[in-house]
Design a protein that fits this description.
43 strands, binds alpha-D-glucopyranose, alpha+beta, single chain, 7-stranded antiparallel beta sheet, globular
Length: 748
C-alpha cells in the first residue's frame, strides 16, 4: 500500500507498507508533513520522475520508477539515463558517482575499506540522480537491510531491494543545495560544536598510561605544533569496562586532565556499547536490574564478545535505556573529560558462544580432512569475518513491540549517539557537547559528528577518504573526518604529510593509528616531515575564523562545511568526475595530492577564474595542471569571495580572534558574515555573539571596503583588519582598526 505526503514546498514522501503490516518508524525525520496527497496529485508533483513505469517508451524528460513486492520485501527500480550520475549514498566506497557498483545498507564493522567492500559502518541512503538539466534527491528511510544495485546488473537501472514490511522514500525535486537545506529541515541541523573541535586532535590506540598522554602533550608544546585534543582509546578503562578507569595506568585522571588543560589540551574518551557481563560491575548490574539489554528471541539475555569479553548490549531503541545510559557520561564529565567517542556501535561483535561452537566444528572437520582443506580453512576465516548476528537478538521499542535486531540494526549507532548526546546535554546544559560516532543514520548530525572508521595507511585510502567525506556530506552530515595518516598499517613520512594537508581542510582533523603500527605523531618521521606536518596544522589554525563561521552556518542549516563540486555546479557535468577535490565553505576549493612521489596534479576549476592561494595569481578556469611539491597544498579561492584568517596559535583559545587578514578575489562584489562568540557555551542564543558583515566592492573609483556595524553583544578583541584584495587590476591593500560601529573606506 502506498501513501503520499508533502513536506516543505517540494519534498514528497512515499510511504509503502505490506498489506496489514506496519513498518517501524526510525525517528530520523523530525518534521511533520504538510499534507497527505492522493496518488494523482503526488504523481503530478513528481518533476522528472514517473511512478509505475519501466514499460513502454522511455523519455529523456523523466525517469520511470517501479515498486514491486518481493518475497523479502520490496524492490524499487528507477530508470537511469546515460547522462545521469547517481551521486552520494553516504558512507560507501568508490567515486562520488556510484553508478556501476553495488552497495549494501547494513551497518558493519569493516576494517577493510578496499574497493570491493559493499558495507561500512553507516547507513546514509541519500543520493542524487543528477544531470545538468535535472537533479532529484532521494532518501530511503528504512532501518533494516537494503541493497543498491546502481546500474551494475543492468546499466540503465538503479535497483533497490528493501528487506522488510515497508519503507519511506523521500524525494526532493529541487537543486541539490536546496535539497541539502531541506534534509536539515527534515532531520535537524548539525551540532554547533565548541571551537576546540575545529583544532587538531591527536590519537592512538592507545596512549596507554598517564605518563604517555602527558608526554605527547609536552611534545606538542615543546615543538610548537598546535593541538587541541588528545583522545583516550580503550586502554584507559579497567578491563575495558565502559565508564571506568584503570587505576594502575591512570591513577588520578582529574589531575592529569587538569595538567593537560593548563596546556590548552582537552581530553576525549572512547565509549563502547558492549558492557562487560560480570557480577560486581555496576553498569552491568544496573542494566540487568533496569532490563536495559538486548535479548534473544526467547527472552534470554543476549551476550557476545567484544573488547571486554562476554558483554551485554544496551537496547538503545528504547527511550528508558537511552536515558539510563546517557547518565553514565556524567562520570567521565566529572573527571574533566571534554568529549566522547562512541565506537563499535554498529554494534561490532567478535563472537558469540554459538558462533565459536560452529567455528570449532568447522575446524574439527578441517583436521579430519587432512591436507586437502584449503577451501574449508578459507570458510572458517570468512565465517569469522562476516558473521552476521542480526538474527541472534531482539530489541524492544517504546510501545513494547519486539523487533529482530536485523530489522532495526541500522539505527543502533544513531540511537547510541542520541543517548550520549542527550545524556551529556542534561549533565552539562551550559556547554556545547563534542560527541563522535562511528555508526550513523540520517539525522545523526543533530547528535554527533562522524568519522569514517578504520582506514589504512595506504595512498589508495587517502583518495578513498577524499571521496567518502564528500559522499557523507551529501547526506547532511556536515562534521566529518577520517583517521589522518591511516589507522591500520604503517604510515610513511610522505603519506603523513599529504594526509595532514588534506586533513587540515576537513571539519574533523584527527591523526589516529592502530596498536602495533608505526607511530605517526607529527614528529615520528624526520625533521622535514615534522616541518611540513606542522606547516599544514598551522595553516589549519590560521583558517579558524573562516572555518568557525562556516561551521556556524552549517549549524544553522544552511549547508555542510565541505561540499562536492557537483553540489555547487550541478549544471556542469565535469564536476561529477572532479571528486578528488572539494569546496570548503563557499570560498575555498582544495585539491589534495594523494599520490606517492607526486610533484603536482590535475585540477578542475569550474565556473571561470580562480585565485591560486599559493602563488596568489588569478588563473583561468577549466582543466589545469598544478605543480605541488611536498610543501604545497593546491587550494584556490573562488571569484567574488572573502577569506578571513588569523595567526596560528597553539590551541583554539576561544571563538574570537586577534588581528585578522582578509583575502579577497573580487571582480565585482564579495561579502562574508564573520561569526564570533565565546567558543563553547550557549550564550550566543541570548545575543552574546558578534556578526560582522564584510563587504568588498569593485567600483569604478577603486575598491570599497565596508565593515558593517556589528550584530550581537559579544565584545571582540581590539584588533586590526588587514585586507588584501586581488583582481584583474592587481592587488589592493588596506589596514583598518576594527570597531563595533564598523567603517567604510575606498582603496585606489
Ligand atoms: C575500533 C575503532 C578504532 C579504535 C579501536 C580500539 O577499531 O574504529 O578507532 O582505535 O576500535 O578501540
Amino acid at each position: 500500500m502506498k501513501r503520499f505526503f508533502r513536506y516543505l514546498d517540494s519534498v514528497i514522501k512515499m510511504e509503502v507498507e505490506r498489506e496489514g503490516k506496519t513498518k517501524f518508524k526510525t525517528d530520523s525525520v523530525l518534521a511533520a508533513p504538510v499534507e497527505e496527497l492522493d496518488t494523482d496529485v503526488a504523481n503530478h508533483l513528481f518533476q522528472g520522475l514517473r511512478l509505475h513505469g519501466l514499460e513502454g517508451s522511455s523519455s529523456q524528460d523523466f525517469n520511470e520508477m517501479e515498486i514491486v513486492e518481493t518475497t523479502d520485501g520490496f524492490s524499487i527500480t528507477i530508470e537511469l539515463h546515460d547522462d545521469q550520475a547517481v551521486l552520494g549514498l553516504g558512507q560507501t566506497i568508490g567515486p562520488l558517482n556510484k553508478r556501476g557498483g553495488v552497495y549494501e545498507m547494513y551497518n558493519t564493522d569493516e576494517p577493510d575499506h578496499s574497493p570491493s567492500k559493499r558495507r561500512l559502518y553507516s547507513t546514509l541512503p541519500i543520493f542524487y540522480i543528477s544531470s545538468p538539466e535535472r537533479q532529484i534527491g532521494f532518501f530511503l528511510d528504512h532501518p533494516g537491510y537494503s541493497r543498491f544495485d546502481v546500474g551494475f546488473e543492468i546499466r540503465d537501472r538503479l535497483k533497490i531491494d528493501v528487506e522488510g514490511d515497508g519503507f519511506d522514500l523521500f524525494m526532493f525535486f529541487e537543486k541539490p543545495e536546496e535539497t541539502l537545506r531541506d534534509i536539515f529541515k527534515l532531520t535537524g541541523n548539525p551540532l554547533f560544536l565548541p571551537i576546540w573541535s575545529l583544532g587538531y586532535h591527536q590519537s592512538r590506540w592507545s596512549y596507554e598510561d598517564e605518563k604517555s598522554v602527558l608526554d605527547i602533550a609536552k611534545e606538542f608544546r615543546d615543538r610548537k605544533i598546535p593541538c587541541d585534543a588528545i583522545h583516550l582509546d580503550i586502554d584507559y578503562m579497567d578491563e575495558y569496562k565502559v565508564f571506568t578507569w584503570n587505576r594502575d595506568r591512570f591513577p588520578d585522571p582529574s589531575s592529569m586532565i587538569d595538567e593537560l588543560s593548563r596546556m590548552g589540551i582537552k581530553v576525549v574518551a572512547i565509549v563502547d556499547p558492549g558492557v562487560k557481563a560480570v557480577d560486581g560491575y555496576d553498569v552491568y548490574e544496573d542494566g540487568i536490574k533496569n532490563d536495559s539489554f538486548c535479548k534473544r528471541e526467547d527472552g534470554r539475555p543476549f551476550k557476545a564478545a567484544v573488547w571486554p569479553g562476554e558483554s551485554s548490549f544496551p537496547d538503545f531503541l528504547n527511550t528508558a535505556t537511552r536515558s539510563w545510559w546517557g547518565k553514565y557520561y556524567d562520570r567521565l564529565l566529572k573527571k574533566g573529560i571534554a568529549g566522547f567517542w562512541n565506537d563499535m556501535n554498529e554494534p561490532a561483535i567478535f563472537y558469540t558462544s554459538e558462533s565459536l561452537k560452529e567455528l570449532r566444528q568447522m575446524s574439527a572437520e578441517l583436521e579430519d580432512r587432512g591436507i586437502e582443506t584449503e577451501f574449508l580453512f578459507g570458510r572458517i576465516i570468512s565465517k569469522k569475518k562476516y558473521f552476521d548476528y542480526g538474527n541472534d537478538f531482539t530489541q524492544r521499542d517504546d510501545s513494547g513491540i519486539v523487533h529482530l535486531h536485523r530489522k532495526v540494526r541500522n539505527i543502533y549507532g544513531f540511537n547510541m549517539a542520541r543517548a550520549a548526546y542527550e545524556g551529556i546535554r542534561s549533565c552539562e546544559p551550559e556547554r556545547r557537547p563534542f560527541n563522535i560516532t562511528r555508526s550513523s543514520y540520517p539525522g545523526i548530525q543533530r547528535y554527533a559528528i562522524l568519522w569514517t572508521g578504520d582506514n589504512d595507511s595506504q595512498w589508495e585510502h587517502l583518495l578513498s577518504e577524499i571521496r567518502l567525506v564528500q559522499s557523507i556530506s551529501l547526506a547532511g552530515v556536515s562534521f566529518t573526518g577520517c583517521d589522518v595518516g591511516g589507522f591500520g598499517g604503517d604510515c610513511s613520512g610522505e603519506l603523513l604529510v599529504r594526509w595532514t594537508q588534506f586533513g587540515a581542510f576537513l571539519p574533523f582533523f584527527r591523526n589516529h593509528s592502530a596498536i602495533g603500527t608505526r607511530k605517526q605523531e607529527p614528529w615520528a618521521f624526520d625533521e622535514e616531515v615534522e616541518r611540513l606536518v606542522k606547516k599544514a596544522i598551522d595553516l589549519r589554525y590560521s583558517l579558524l575564523p573562516y572555518l568557525y563561521t562556516i561551521h556556524k552556518q552549517s549549524a544553522d542549516g544552511e549547508t555542510t562545511m565541505i561540499r562536492p563540486l557537483a553540489l555547487v555546479w550541478p549544471q556542469d557535468r565535469e564536476t561529477y568526475y572532479a571528486d578528488d577535490q572539494f569546496m570548503v565553505g563557499s570560498a575555498i576549493m582544495v585539491a589534495p595530492v594523494y599520490q606517492r612521489n607526486s610533484e603536482g596534479r590535475h585540477v578542475y576549476l569550474p565556473g571561470g577564474e580562480w585565485l591560486d592561494l599559493n602563488s596568489k595569481s588569478i588563473i583561468e578556469g577549466g582543466h589545469i595542471w598544478v605543480s605541488a611539491p611536498l610543501e604545497t597544498i593546491p587550494h584556490f579561492q573562488r571569484r567574488d569571495t572573502l577569506l578571513v584568517t588569523t595567526a596560528s596559535t597553539q590551541y583554539a583559545e576561544g571563538g574570537s580572534w586577534g588581528d585578522l587578514h582578509i583575502t579577497g578575489f573580487v571582480e565585482e562584489r564579495a561579502e562574508f558574515d564573520l561569526y564570533e562568540d565565546d567558543g563553547f557555551t550557549y550564550a550566543y542564543e541570548t545575543g552574546e555573539y558578534s556578526i560582522k558583515k564584510l563587504v568588498v566592492t569593485n567600483t569604478h573609483d577603486g575598491i570599497r571596503i565596508e565593515v558593517r556595524p556589528q550584530k550581537g553583544t559579544f565584545i571582540c578583541k581590539e584588533r586590526m583588519l588587514s585586507f588584501k584584495i586581488y583582481n584583474g587590476s592587481g592587488l589592493h591593500e588596506a589596514k583598518i582598526p576594527d570597531s563595533p560601529a564598523g567603517c567604510e573606506i575606498l582603496v585606489e
